[in-house]
Amino acid sequence: MVEVAYHYLPKIEVSTSIFDQRYLYDLAIRYGTPFFLIDDAVLHLKIIELKNGFIDFSGDVRIAFSMKANFNPAVIKAFISKNLLFDVTSIGELFFYLKCGGIPENVIYTSVTETREEFCEVLEKGVGHIVVGSFNGLLNLIDVALQKNASPRVMIRVNPEVGVKAEVRASYRHGKFGVPLNGPTTDSATSLLRKIHNSGLVFDGFHFHLGSQIENPICFINALEKLEVFVLKMRKEFPDLHVKIVDIGGGTPVSYGSPVPSPEEIGAIVTKKLNTMIQNIGDQFTLIVESGRYLSAEACMLVSKIVNSKVYGGQKFIFVDAGFHLLLDAALLRQEYPQEVVPCTENSENLKINLAGRLCDTYDVFPLSPTSKLSGAEPGKLLIFRNVGAYSIVFNMPFHCQTKPPIVLRKDNGEFVLVRKGETIEELFEEEGGNISTEV
User: Fold this and answer.
1) Residue 66 domain flag
2) Tell me, what's the pLDDT at 108?
3) Would the pTM count as exceeding 0.85?
C-alpha cells in the first residue's frame, strides 16, 4: 500500500464569482439581508474543471452531483441541464430531483437505511443505479425486486479501510458506510457479491467514498489497489464477473483560503492507477466521479449587513445580521469561509478583528480565512461570505426564530432572479404549529 507523502502545488486558484458592489447593494435593498446569491456560470464551470481533471482516463467519465450538499431546485435544474448523474440518498431528495425534471436513469440511489419502503419507491420510479452497503439492505432489495418482477442494476458500496487525510474521513476501520472487502460476517463485499450472483439483480460494479476535503490523493490509489486485488480474487470464483462501473465518490477539495490540490492534480495521479486497473482486470469500466462541495461551494455567497461594532482591549468586534444558523459548518468544523467587506477600504486601525453573528450563542463567532478582507468594516456596510454553496442552505436552522433567507440566482445571461422567497415570521410561526388549536 502506498504511503508516500503527496505535495500539491502551493498556490490558490479559486474560480469564484465577482459581483459589482452596486448590484449587491441593489439586491440588499430589494430583498433585505441576509440573502444567498448563486452564480449559474460558476456551477457550469465547476463541472468542466472536475471532468477535465480526469481527461486522460481511457474510458468514459461521468460526473455525479451529491444532492446532500445543496438541494435548491435552481441548482438541481442547472446540473440536470448538463446531463449530470445525481447521487441521491433519500426519498425526499429523489422527489426534488424528479420534480425538477430529472430522469430516473441518471440517479445513483445510495441509502444508509436501505429499507423495503425505499426500494419499493425507487424501483417504481425506475431509478438507474442502486448502491447497497449492507447484507440486510441487499436482502430487502432482492425481496422488493422479486415482488415487482424487476432486475435493478446494483453496485456494492465498499469500505476499503484505507487511511485518508481529509477534513472529514469516511473510510476507516469499522466505519459507518459500506462494507469491508473481506470479513467473517455476511456484511462484506464477498458475501454481497455471492448473493447478488445468485439473485435476479444485475451487478454493475463498486462504489466507495473516502472523505470530504481530501488533502492527499494517495488514498484513492490505496483504495483502488485493494479493490483490484479483490476483483481478481473473486473472478476465480466467478469467471464471468465483470466490472462495468467504478464510482470513486467525492472528496475533491475547495479552497477556503489555503492551498488544496486541484482536480487536475488529483486526476493525474488517480487516472494513472485507473488505467492500469483496466489493463489488469480486463474490463473497460465507466468511471463515476462524485462531488457535492466542489460543484456547488464556490458558486454561492452569503450577503449580510454589518449591524453593530464595539472596540475594547485592542480588539474590534464586528456584528453581522447572519449567524451560524445559516453557516453551520463555521461552528461544527470551524470552516474558514473567506469574508469581504463591501466596499473594503483601507484604514489605520491597528486592531484585531473579531467577526460575530447575531445569535446569542458563544460559538457564533466566525473563523477568519487567510484571504478575508475586513478592512473598513463599519455598521451599514455589507459583508459577504464566499464559497458557501455546499452544506449551508441545507443546514438552515430557525434558532432564535430566524427565518429562511431569500436565494437569488444570477443566470448565464447576467439576469438576477429570485429562486427562493424569504420566509416571513408569520410563515415560521405557522410552520411550528402556531395556528394549530390545542383546545380539547
Assistant:
1) yes
2) 98
3) yes
